[in-house]
Amino acid sequence: MTNHLPGIYIVSDSIGETAEMVVRAAASQFNSGTMEIRRVPNISDFDTLEEIVNNAALSNFIIAYTLVVDEMADFLETKAEEAGVLCIDVLGPLISAFKSVSQIEPRKEPGLLRKLDEMYYRRIEAVEFAVRYDDGKDPRGIKLADIVLVGVSRTSKTPLSMYLAHKRIKVANVPLVPEVNPPEELFKAEKGKVIGLTVKPDLLYHIRTERLKTLGLKGQANYANENRIQEELEFSNEIMKKLGCPVIDVTNKAVEETASKILEIYYRRISNV
Description:
By secondary structure, the protein is α/β, with parallel strands linked by helices. Helices cover 51% and strands 13% of the residues. The chain has eleven helices and eight strands. Strand 1 (8-12), helix 1 and strand 2 (37-40) form a beta-alpha-beta unit.
């Protein structure tokens, strides 16, 4: 009895990671076994498939594949059968089961899982970016961001940054406060990257008053003072005019509605680059 598992060719029209993970998971059930894996990714022609089958027959290897194009999968199966090579379709049975139950045709597009993984990691990266460059913590984020939101406190800068991050967009936000000069990076930012947020004074007064209550503080604090709010909004509007940035009034708008307007501005800008 041999202590070695048979060698295996992993054949894919993408990079073959899915098939290799399945193969290694199966091989792990054979504790004392060793196995040679030869991964052949990005298959796009029949000649390469035939060469793999011939090599597998000579080396007594088996073949595991993820080929979503039916013609290539059928060709590989036929050639493997002719050569007496064991050939395993890693995804086919499950795709067929999904199709049977859902009555939905599969897309037959190589590399979709990898694309989904890339989208996931871009989303995580954007979320981490939003946290790192929230509330003007580091002005260097202005240059790195896809979008920079500016406005007074409680204009939904942070919720919008996180919402847009889940759309895989890197957002930095900078609060505008009369006592603090805005970072110079704002005025050097690419035209259209900075977007201003404003709100009606009476709604901002209500929001801030409620915020103080949740913190157990008195409503007379300067944060929720009507004169102070007016001063902040005037300062904010002045800075936005200097920046020449588009301004969105978030009064009575849901985060999703404001985000939609921001995305319109963003996609219009990048389409003109």
